[in-house]
Amino acid sequence: ADKKPLLDVNGIEVIYNQVILVLKGVSLRVDEGAIVALLGANGAGKTTTLRAVSNLLRGERGEVTKGAITLREQRIEALSPAALVQRGVVQVMEGRHCFAHLSIEENLLTGAYTRTDGKAAIARTLEKVYDYFPRLKTRRHSQAAYTSGGEQQMCAIGRALMSEPRMVLLDEPSMGLAPQIVEEVFSIVRDLNRREGVSFLLAEQNTHMALTYADHGYILENGRVVMDGPAAALRENEDVKEFYLGMG
Ligand code: ATP
Q: Where in this chain does the record put each ABC transporter domain (predicted)?
């Protein structure tokens, strides 16, 4: 059966500070229920692509100057980040961004700010987040500042899940984490994808890990998609091996 695109990014150009052209016509799609990896070196434009989708460019003095972004075939470029969260699209920013002085549980609850379905429903989501991230349950009364890097990354993802999203934009979840913790985070992402049907667009420099868990990958170079394909095919591709998997 033909899958419908959940997210469709079509030929977008992004300019920062009215002069710096950073995305030069990027197109990609995320099908309903897919994990899609956005790969490429530092500075290739991964974060910018995610920010364009979640409408977080303005704070960075950036704007989409060409192309279109649609969610279930509806244009979304004009929607605020909060309106996007209400439509099921939430971004987990690079560098985690937990509130250091709040407890893990308080951090998680801030993720429910756009919800209007009441405390009981929010409490059910919180229990679900704890089921996926048992470490967060153990640490729920700890101040985020005193938890590990892995726990803070889990907290950032858990906080995003508190909005009951259909699609999570995940920016470099592996950054700064030990390989074992990266595996743990990615395997929870896969569980969320399989059991809850949450779709993911995942920006990663850790090509190997991302292609192990993703269904499909796009490789960005200097603001352009230079290659894309099923994750398994990219893993076997000689150029990808040489340039991104360090097997040349
Ligand atoms: P990283 O892994 O460092 O996040 P990336 O692939 O996500 O890399 P981006 O952060 O999207 O890349 O950056 C792409 C380009 O845009 C880089 O050359 C960067 O210097 C530039 N850039 C990013 N943010 C801004 C900004 N606010 N103003 C001007 N230029 C920016």
A: 7-247
Separation of alpha carbons 212 and 137, rounded Å? 27
Dist CA 202 CA 185 (whole Å) = 12
21 lines ligand 1 (CB under 6 A): no
What is the pTM assigned to this prediction? Answer: 0.94
- Kindly state the tokens that stand for 159: 């906080």
Q: How far is residue 109 CA from its own chain's centroid?
A: 19
| Alpha-carbon gap, residue 127 to 123, rounded angstroms | 6
Query: Residue 248: which pLDDT band, with cuts at 50, 70 and 90?
Result: low
Beta strands in the chain (DSSP E): 5-16, 20-31, 35-39, 62-71, 74-75, 89-92, 167-171, 199-204, 216-221, 224-230
In the block, residue with structure tokens 């030990």: 178
ipTM of the complex: 0.93
Query: For residue 128, which amino acid is it?
Result: K
For residue 207, which amino acid is it?
Answer: T
**42 CB within 6 A, ligand 1:** yes
